[in-house]
Amino acid sequence: MDALLRDRAVLYVTGKGGVGKTTVAAALGLAAARTGRRTIVCEVSEQDRMSRAFARQGVRPEQEVELAKDLWAITIDPQRALEEWLGKQLGGGPAGRILGHSHAFQYFVAAAPGAKELITIAKVWELAQPQRWDKHNRRYDLVVVDAPASGHGIGMLTTPRTFGEIARVGPIRRQATKVSEMLADPARTGYVAVALPEEMPVNETIDLERRLRDAVGLGLDAIVMNAMWPERFSSSDVTKLRAATRDGHSVGDLGAVRAALAAHERVKAQRAHVRRLEAATDAPITPLPFVFESELELTHYEHLAAELA
């Protein structure tokens, strides 16, 4: 993971819905920022969970907000990104905003399958460029993408190639080609899958690598196995616990013993799922501990970032 954080320009983080992608993306961003790399974490939904996690209020969707030293976040707004791109093509000024809001252009964007996805991934590309669409904005050393869940996330990666094939010439073709080249360049872009140690997330992660190769010609660079329970009991402890269930303890004691054994069995099951994933992929797997909190605070993200560094 250290090489990805140090050397890549973009980290694309995806996985099955509900596995903790946003948490892992935030922790990766924080880990990179701690090394001195100017880092931004991009959300492509409208939930703006990053800013809330770092106690930033009143943040506009398209705003690049500083969360900590060398760490920023943005929720990409396709409409705003489109206006920026059009402004760049038209030489600046209000023309991009005017055209972007025109009914004809709005209809085209709404009707063209994948247009918003193309604009979104093009904005990711733009954040990592020395020359930004807005000349007053600085580039980032690392862009961490909190991508959509696996299916939509892979689909987003294919849109530049699709639009490049449709638009044979012109600015859309040129932009799509540049983005496609970045996504297929292993020196610039790394792909990280987030999984849980459960049957369905592991199955989807195995399938994700195949679909990723079909989409961009690259495999996964890393897998983060999230929410791993700690092993609290040795084999001798487990033997004693099992014996205790037969020794006629009080109901309260027996309940605690059974809870301990259930936790042990869960750890065993989790490790079996990890072994199955290890056998099915060449990508290194980094475990992250289960955080026993309903809401994560900055200290939790810092702990997870240290685990990933």
TrEMBL record:
Q: Which Gene3D superfamilies match?
A: P-loop containing nucleotide triphosphate hydrolases (3.40.50.300)
Q: Name one GO molecular function term.
A: ATP binding
One Pfam short name: ArsA_ATPase
Question: Which residues are in the ArsA/GET3 Anion-transporting ATPase-like domain?
Answer: 10-166, 174-235
Ranges in a coiled coil = none
Q: Which family does it belong to?
A: Belongs to the arsA ATPase family.
Q: What is this protein called?
A: AAA family ATPase
